[in-house]
Amino acid sequence: MDVKAAVAYAAGEPLSIETIQLEGPKEGEVLVEIKATGVCHTDAYTLSGKDPEGLFPTILGHEGAGIVVEVGEGVKSVKPGDHVIPLYTPECRQCKFCLSQKTNLCQAIRATQGKGLMPDGTSRFSVNGKPLYHYMGTSTFANYTVLPEIAVAKIREDAPFDKVCYIGCGVTTGIGAVIFTAKVEPGAKVVVFGLGGIGLNVIQGCRMVGADRIVGVDLNPSKRSIAEQFGMTHFVNPKEIRGDLVAHLIELTDGGADYSFECIGNVQVMRQALECCHKGWGVCTIIGVAGAGEEISTRPFQLVTGRVWKGSAFGGARGRTDVPKIVDWYMDHKINIDDLITHTLPLNQINDAFDLMHHGESIRSVVLF
Ligand code: NAD
Ligand code: DAO
Ligand code: ZN
């Protein structure tokens, strides 16, 4: 079938809006009509050429929501008409990783997903007979996409696509890191580095679980008011701190953070995020994705004396199980998504969404099909 898509032909080039071809779902796959998609930092990272896994030409996008229109042979968990959120972290419930209950990193289709292909090793997208790569197993910058059955979360039908698409990455990554990865408890003192589309969701997750002090750190002072709206209690702009930032944060948190979160992707900040943690128990969760080949460092004594470094992908959420619950939290007004979606655009203006992100003018832009 013909579909309308934003094609990334090469790193560093704007996306090209055109009609391309999509093959129907094979065994174990579903065809989904994408109704809305967020534009995330990770799409920009891959488009920039810095992503070592980045393949071109491709259809980017991994933060969508839509409706199942057709299912391939053997698909049992969803049917045409179901509303779904695509999952770049699938949940097969059968692999060693899923069965371990220790991680959300299902490996059932990891090898082919990382190569930009469907599980049978081929692509469903093409243009003029030439294949295009899939991206993160989702490719939501097209009005139709094909996904493995294990990579869709079925959601309630009254949830608005233009809002809940953000649960496909940013909301779940931020709130999930607080709840599923760090397991922040009521009364905790928290430091959040980076108040963008991820960090603001970490902040609302911390407020939701009853954290006592929520310190936000950002170089951009314009992030202060929205972060306060989402629960930040203290704002720190590193440019305004005379002396050592880490010492200042330790003082602000009465001896160090119980939990810190790095939501930038900067390896120097990752060190600060660990070292501002409380001696003996402070846990630092890395969410930001650093540039290819970059490394983190600290004095090992920081770990010997009880600080812990951990990481979180997709907020530690098991997509098919947890995403529908997060949609419920939104529909029950337990979390705020609306105020984080600062721009909505049609597909033919998708490149503007990247510009808004690069200029720090948006929290999240959503493309409507
Ligand atoms: P963003 O650009 O919206 O936000 C980053 C914020 O950090 C901005 O407000 C910026 O002003 C601030 N900042 C930059 N450098 C800083 C510094 N040195 N000190 C303090 N503040 C600084 O980005 P985002 O969409 O929130 O994404 C954040 C990171 O999370 C990215 O690296 C992204 O790739 C990653 N990410 C990870 C996952 C995951 O599952 N782990 C999922 C999605 C995104
Ligand atoms: O299982 O090895 C694996 C890879 C899982 C990929 C997790 C990606 C999370 C970070 C990338 C940012 C996503 C928008
Ligand atoms: Zn699995």
Secondary structure blueprint with pairings:
Elements: E1 2-7, E2 16-22, E3 29-39, H1 41-48, E4 64-71, E5 83-86, H2 96-100, H3 110-114, E6 125-127, E7 130-131, E8 144-148, E9 152-155, H4 161-164, H5 170-182, E10 189-193, H6 199-208, E11 213-217, H7 224-229, E12 234-236, H8 245-252, E13 259-262, H9 267-275, E14 283-286, H10 301-304, E15 308-311, H11 319-331, E16 341-346, H12 350-358, E17 364-368
Parallel strand pairs: 10-11, 10-13, 11-12, 13-14, 14-15, 16-17
Antiparallel strand pairs: 1-2, 2-6, 3-4, 3-8, 3-17, 4-5, 5-9, 6-7
The structure holds nicotinamide-adenine-dinucleotide, lauric acid and zinc ion (ZN).
The site of zinc ion has 7 residues, from helix 2.
Report on this model:
This is S-(hydroxymethyl)glutathione dehydrogenase. Keywords: Metal-binding, NAD, Oxidoreductase, Zinc. Belongs to the zinc-containing alcohol dehydrogenase family. Class-III subfamily. The chain is an alpha/beta fold. It folds into 2 domains: about 200 residues, Medium-chain alcohol dehydrogenases, catalytic domain (Quinone Oxidoreductase, Chain A, domain 1, Alpha-Beta Complex), CATH 3.90.180; about 140 residues, NAD(P)-binding Rossmann-like Domain (Rossmann fold, 3-Layer(aba) Sandwich). It is built from 12 helices and 17 strands. Strands 3, 4, 5, 8, 9, 16 and 17 form a 7-stranded mixed β-sheet that branches. The protein is globular, with a radius of gyration of 20 Å. The mean pLDDT is about 95. The site of nicotinamide-adenine-dinucleotide has 31 residues, from helix 1.
